[in-house]
Amino acid sequence: MARERLRVLLVEFGTPDPAAVALGRVLRDEGMEVVHAGPLDTLEQLRSTAEQEDPDAVGVLGDGPPPGLAEALNGVRVFSGSDLGDPGKAVEWLRGGRSHTVDVPPDRAR
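^ Methylmalonyl-CoA mutase, C-terminal domain, sequence as received from the core. Prediction below:
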């Protein structure tokens, strides 16, 4: 059965990153289900958490994604805060570039 909403796992890898909470709120407000795992220190912890949460995508903040993460997650989409810049770009990327608010005048965004 397909999910109605994207499920995104946010992880602070290595160094805690306060931007994770702000990003999580933006994703939630855009209708995504957000699981904030908090700080994790090893690739194995991250892989195990992703296995338990079964996300559609994993966002890695803090020190960025560890080497080998994409392979360890078997096809789950991975992004880092530094890759996308602002939260709006993360929303667009997660939706496959089809954000309804991109290039739309502010009075028509919602």
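The CA atoms of residues 30 and 91 lie 8 Å apart.
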